[in-house]
């Protein structure tokens, strides 16, 4: 004889299992939109490698579209991906956040992922690298290494947190250091970036931080030609000049892409704005040049270790 409480227990089991399955996501196909060509040796190349990492590690089909930066191109690309059965789309720039907010309710079967935007609601996530921290430690090293006591930042836009981080890190180590900052107002305007470089060089800057993924390689090449020094940006750029690149501020985009895709497949990818730092293993400094004295390298590495442990920067420990 089956008692009523046994029946209720069986029903409860089915309900729990059913709810768990409803929350599971199946990663079917992934797509990426890149604002510029994939061969920039910077941010767009990182995105390309990130989507390939998903393909390799998770064994799914991926779709890639580059040079997508207008509203019409973004809308058309999303519709095309939808027709292909893509159910997670990475927009590899902050410019996609606004358009993804407009599209997410129309394509509820797609999870939209962008970078450095401000999003809210269901099926949308914005990923944020804590750029301030990586800039801070690069600034510390630069102030350790400068001989003219004059550093230069050639950045793309004022909203980049690594810019203020660099200034603060440099100033903490050496209050007398001067940091000149110019904004290109573009990720890719090489001519304007080189114009700022020449001005800074003329004023005595000897270490530069070209923080723009589309122009940094050209600037570094000129820095190398002039026998000066630079901090690499986004990737580990020691290969651009072992005696030119003191270190690099590295964003491990490939690892973050893989982590996000795995979280989506497991049904645990969070909506809204998510932030990532040194402790998450997706931000680091790159290889140090052999011209950086070992004691300076160890001092920076120790400062990073303390930041990971405590969440505090060196100047906050001294307060």
Automatic annotation (TrEMBL):
InterPro entries: BMP_lipoprotein, PnrA-like. It holds the Pfam family Bmp. It is found in: Cell membrane. The keyword Cell membrane applies. Keywords: Cell membrane, Lipoprotein, Membrane, Signal. Residues 28-315 form the ABC transporter substrate-binding protein PnrA-like domain. This is BMP family ABC transporter substrate-binding protein.
